[in-house]
TIGR02569 family protein (Georgenia wutianyii), 271 residues
Amino acid sequence: MSTAPQDGPPPGGVLGAFGAPAGPVPLSGGQRTVWRAGDVVLKRLDVSLEELGWQEEVLTAVDGAPDVRVAPPVRSRDGELVVAGWTAWRFEPGTAPTPDGYPDVVAAGRVLHRHLAHLPRPALLDRRDHPWARADRIAWGEAAAGAVGDLPHVGALLAARDAVDAAAQVVHGDLTDNVHLHPDLPPLVLDLTGYWRPPAYASAVVVADAVVFRGADLALVDRVGEEEGPQFPQLLLRALLFRALTDQLLAPGTEWARWFGPAVSRVLTLT
């Protein structure tokens, strides 16, 4: 979940509370909403306090794994997770993938999900009501589409939706821009956005994002589909629905068919 861009760096009092040095610099891709100060990354609180606490618990348990890196939140000197609306996270090195690097993003997600497989379903998922949560429920048939279901590409995907027989677990539902790679270190997974879905669905969201928004070739659909198995087309269909519905809920009346058209055509062929 994200918020509207906030101007300005974290103030000195926030930096001091988290033990961060002065002179924070904006991180690339953060629209000047994410700032680094020494070994600390600071950003505005963009989830509920309940969800932030859950992220801390989960990420702390995974931290130190030999095959994947995470960056748990940093508490203030007074033991708080939030100071004046700001949160802090440990800085870890890495760079975002190039358009041909999304197979590595998918692979990193699989590793992370092996570490999350034992977790119970968090009750906080039932209390989330932002556009991403509503779009997820519609994509999986747990809520009605309403007027957005009349859009051509959305209606076609809804009509092609079929049952999926795959076990759900806690997954990171927004891996695409939140996996950073390093030549000498395990992949870094940031900003845990929890959903209760099959792990291969998280891979499908990466593929949908990559081919619709990030310039990846449609061959990525076939490559990841071969790795994930015969249910992948239905998972990719839901991933495309999830992104298309979220866009419509965030910007009603906007038509995204030009972006989604090629990927929708491909998945309809597969299904």
